[in-house]
Amino acid sequence: QRSLFSVFSTFGPLYSVRAHRNAAVAGPGYYAIIKFYSAGDAGRAQRACNGQRLFQKSPLKVCVCTKQKGFQQQVLALSSNKCQELANHYLGFNGWSSRIITLQNVSGFDGESKELGETLQKRWVKYLCAVEVTLPNHGVRSRGVALGEAELEKSEDPLELLTASKRAQKLAAGKALSSAFQKILLVVLENGKVAVEYNSTQEELTDSLTEEELKGLVQVNPVDI
Which residue stretches, if any, does this entry annotate as coiled coil (predicted)? Predict the structure, then answer.
């Protein structure tokens, strides 16, 4: 996998690299599935690497997968880590920034479940987070709002409460950052330049609120995202 990543990452950022052993009926060897963020990068990699001896004696057969069978129509959102990876690659580390507008504790009892005739209450730590992403060179701003939660098994344990709170805060901040990036379109041109557009079709009701309306009455503590 390291050799595959080293070769194919030269054509553009990779979403994932997976190497698998061939089926028994196919004989000894391996096959790999390499996912690019960009179809253009994938096409260039296929044309350049197909039939070449990249890091082994026999030439590789490289194909572009075009089958859609088994894939859902719904497009899954990228994680916050993947969004930051793409932003750093195409915009540069100084080409974008993010800030937390508000991080609110909205915890409460999530309901009751019965077991062996006893009523048990499960408590969850919940945080609501709003994040703004700014692309100063392109004049684009985007907001994302998300909920992060973590379950408490021992609600009276202060250490567990602290750990669960940090976990819920980080999850909420990451999901909100991902939500903000989903409204930003990066258009990569053939000459390597990047154009940026704001996708208003992905706007949510919270995008129309002012910062004061989002902040509410809760004091915000900084959290690394």
Answer: none
User: How is 125-178 classified by DSSP, letter by letter?
Assistant: EEEEEEEEEEETTTTEEEEEEEEEEEEESSTT-HHHHHHHHHHHHHHHHHHHHH
CA distance 127 to 150: 9
Which residue pairs from 196-200 have beta carbons closer than 8 angstroms and sit at least 24 positions apart in sequence? 196/91, 196/135, 196/138, 196/140, 197/140, 198/140, 198/141, 198/142
Structure token digits, residue 189: 């041109």
Flag whether the pTM goes above 0.85. Answer: no
Rounded Cα distance between 15 and 197, Å, is 22
- What is the spatial distance between Cα 179 and Cα 101, in angstroms, rounded to a whole number? 14
Are residues 173 and 129 in contact, defined by beta-carbon separation less than 8 angstroms?
Answer: yes
DSSP of 4-53: HHHHHGGGS-EEEEEEEEPPGGG-S-EEEEEEES-HHHHHHHHHHHTT--
Q: Which domains does the chain have, with CATH numbers?
A: 1-73 (3.30.70.330), 80-111+119-217 (3.30.390.80)
SS3 content of the chain, % helix, strand, coil (to 5): 30, 30, 35
Contacts of 37 (CB under 8 A, 6+ apart): 12, 13, 14, 15, 86
